[in-house]
Design brief:
Helix content: 25-40%
CATH superfamily: Spore Coat Polysaccharide Biosynthesis Protein SpsA, Chain A
Shape: globular
Radius of gyration: 18 Å
CATH architecture: Alpha-Beta Complex
Structural class: alpha/beta
Amino acid sequence: MREYAPIALFVYNRLGHTKKTVEALLANTLSCVSDLYIFSDGAKEGDSDKAVKEVRTYIHSIRGFKSVTIIESLKNKGLANSIIYGVSMVLDKHGTVIVLEDDLVTSPYFLQYMNDGLELYQDEPSVASIHGYIFPLDNSHELPESFFIRGADCWGWGTWKRAWDIFESDGSVLYKKIGRDTALRSLFNFNETEDYMLMLEQQIKGVNDSWAIRWYASAFLAGMYTLYPSRTFVQNIGTDSSGTHCGKTEKFFSDLIENYSGLTKQAIEDCEVARKGMERYFNPPRKTFVKKILSRLEIFR
């Protein structure tokens, strides 16, 4: 009997977003055979905990999954610590995990795609993760059904314990290793169309608390790759100024994939067509410095 990867869902104080995320997951055909772990972070010091309590009341009413396990933090861990803790906990128990935050609405085929990818590449040591979101690229019609990009990503993803074990939580270690090599730094920054090194530096300084930039850098330095779809299985509805590090924008929007017939194995190497499309997406004509900074914060929260 096939084993399906458990889902780790991270929630905080956005009831409306959480409901939409859960309702979309329940529309997946594999929801009833998937274990759901919900990690509810505690209210920040000095903030009202009313919204957190409303979310917790709702998550205790969720049915329709194989099982629902709720982990409520007494104190505020923060997004990064919550995700690092929760992903590690589920992987220690199950070996695989599918990770979602409370502002990610998924296609009805999301769980099928994720489980197919996790099964197809489980024994490939150079594969770090399976990703469900893809940017609205101008050359999406030229892309294969799925493809690899070096590193890792953060909007609807899945991984294995063997891959997560390479996660380095100390951003300064990652920064030093990349910073010594000009060519490596350029590749990390997508040919200098994005400044992920700046975001890593800001994480070190405490300007942001991004777990995702450290996950990307960890996988990148390990020479590992992430599988992406040519059409997105995920929409981020949190780019409405309601989430951590996210401003209001529609630049990440793409229609969800309308059909899915499975995955075929791809060469585990950078897809140059996709990388060039991403570079143009990150750095369109007349993009101002301020807009660049905002886009970095929106992508790697």
